[in-house]
Amino acid sequence: MLSWVFLIAQNPNREEGYLRICVPLYIASLTGDWETARRLIEENEDLAGCSITENNETTLHIAVSPKSTKLTEDFVRNLVGIMTDEQVQLQDQTGNTALGLAAIAGNVRIARILVTHSRDLLNIRGGNGNTLPLYLAALYGRYDMVNYLYGESENLNDRFWNDEHCGWLLSKCLEADIHDIALKIVTNRPQLAATPSVLEVLAVLASKPTAFRDIEHKFIQRVIRAIRQCKYILHLTFNVI
């Protein structure tokens, strides 16, 4: 990623350049001031795809994090409209894409704008390489975002979601009381019951004895049914149970 901070640092008047370009653009990104951002980007080639902070955040990274308003949504829509897919998919220093940060913040309408522009964002891992945007949303307990991203993720049936990753997501959904999505995961991926991930899931349930309402009972019944199904399949296939 091209760093505007680095380019300015090579200039003898780097402090003046940073104050004149990066600071106003940063503020414009936070406040949804598209006219200021547009002017700065038009005056400085490639600025839309450059990092403007020491954390390698681009203008888009900054714009998706504040609380979603019409101003910020219009800002993001206008910004991605002049960016390439490669620029939209850039990751900051911690590995997060703009969609990852929107997932953490719970900004669903902004996430829709990003996914409409580039569906590849759904499958770019951040952090330690295991944190897809859907997982981040569950980790931070963003129910509406989890519901949206799960719907966009083909029920976790693509190559980006193996049983281990689905197990992690399932556990985080339970920890965040996102039980309807947890139930969908077990319904669509009953083989999870035959993996070590199910032990973590059951441990989460056991730690929440006061949380067993109807949805939890349905979830437990689904887990038990899935375990029985897996045992039956293993018995028929390998005669091991």
Automatic annotation (TrEMBL):
Species this chain originates from: Ambrosia artemisiifolia
Name assigned to this protein: Uncharacterized protein
InterPro entries: Ankyrin_rpt, Ankyrin_rpt-contain_sf
Gene3D superfamilies: Ankyrin repeat-containing domain
Source species taxonomy: Eukaryota, Viridiplantae, Streptophyta, Embryophyta, Tracheophyta
Membrane-crossing residue ranges in chain numbering: none
